[in-house]
Amino acid sequence: MKNKIFNKLRAILVVLFLGGNLLYAQVEKPQNIYRVTVNSRYVIENGERTSTFFAINQLIYDSLGRLHTEIDFDWETHYPNNYRWNYFNGQQKVKTDFFFKEKLSRIEEYDFNENQKLISLTLYHVSPSDTTLSVKEVYSYDKTGHVTKATGYNERGKRGYRTTSKYDDKGNEIYRKVKGKRIAPPDSIMYLQKEIAYDSLNRIGKETVTIDKIGEPRLTKTYTYAYTDDGNITEKTIIDSQGNIQKRKEYVYRSDKRLQQIKVFDNNGNLEDHLAWRYEIYKTSDRRFRTLE
Questions:
Q1: Beta-ladder partners of 245
Q2: Within a 10 A sphere around the Cβ of 144, how many other Cβ atoms?
Q3: Spatial distance between the Cα atoms of 168 and 211, rounded to a whole number of angstroms
Q4: Where are the beta strands (DSSP E) in 101-154?
Q5: pLDDT tens across 40-67, in order?
């Protein structure tokens, strides 16, 4: 394994104090921190939201708007065990390192053509002793810019599967099937089918999705949507294959149309989750002063 990867595995999590708040980052050459989006979850007791909340995710952007660090916090310990580092060539993301329980476990590399279309995704799995290529997926596009075929190759360059996709006249994928099971696609999806119904404004009003992933049973769920006048989703209902409501989500937006809250209700209408988003800017290099957007 490359020394660079070993050095990242040895890296110790440190804490940066941003305007009095804690922001976790990995020890590496400092990257520009300009915008931070914080996703928090409230503690729910007896179906009611309490005033206690903890961060569950942070997205860190540089001054060019590039998302270079994504951090997930454990709900029980509030510690950032899992995180992702994104690397860029200009504005184009070309690589992501995935850390699970503070250990590098997965690497994705992205190649693009001159039209900025993704032409291949190469996935590596990382163990303490080795890094192995799991699959390289190569894409073919139609004249409208949709992926029509994806072919997966193993570390020896031999084809392991071929994926065929179809789209409706609105450009949404409605069918995907993988032929060949020698290796797994990066997203583990072997079969996908969607039945989509649009409203009078050509927005998705209802969709029934059947999905088959490696190692999981085939699932069929139906989703219904309601929208604001400007097109943001205000409500999403999740229905199982027997027609029973499983969850209902309510979405609340700020005046600038950015997401502010999501409330999740169970099949009896009881609140079971409440998420909130905060948007921060750090305009100075020392990151001592935080501005809430």
A1: 239
A2: 8
A3: 17
A4: 103-112, 118-126, 131-141, 147-153
A5: 999 999 999 999 999 999 999 999 999 9
